[in-house]
Amino acid sequence: MLSRSGGVAVVVAIAARIASSLTGLEALAIVSLVAWCAGLVSYVAYFVLYVRITRRALREFAQLAEASRHQHLTREYQRYLLDVG
Questions:
Q1: Computed from CA positions of residues 18, 42, 48, 61, in that sequence, does the dihedral angle turn out positive or negative?
Q2: How far is CA 22 from CA 5, 17, 35, in A?
Q3: In angstroms, rounded to a whole number, what is the distance separating the alpha carbons of residues 20 and 40?
């Protein structure tokens, strides 16, 4: 959702800049600048959240892999003890 709002903000900024150039209204230039800033903030927030979610997913994956590895080693050791006994 954040990346979509950033894209919308950039489109609004471009449209406002074009309209400002055609009409000569400084208010539209300010709207364009504000929209560019909003788009930039939105993209930065999106990227930060993306990195955070990716790190969390990789951390959980590593924990699941470690648990699975531990279970596998426990079963192998139990089989070894049954074969020896």
A1: negative
A2: 26, 9, 18
A3: 20
pLDDT tens by residue, 9-57: 888 888 998 998 899 888 988 999 999 999 899 889 999 999 999 999 9
Residues 61-83 as b/e (b if ≥16 CB within 10 A, e otherwise) read eeeeeeeeeeeeeeeeeeeeeee
Task: Give CA–CA dist 49/30, Å, rounded.
Answer: 29
Check: CB of residue 12 under 8 Å from CB of residue 33: no
Length of the chain: 85
- How far is it, in rounded angstroms, from Cα 16 to Cα 9? 10
Domain positions in the chain are 2-84
pTM of the predicted model, to two decimals?
Answer: 0.65
Query: Is the CB of residue 36 less than 8 Å from the CB of residue 10?
Result: yes
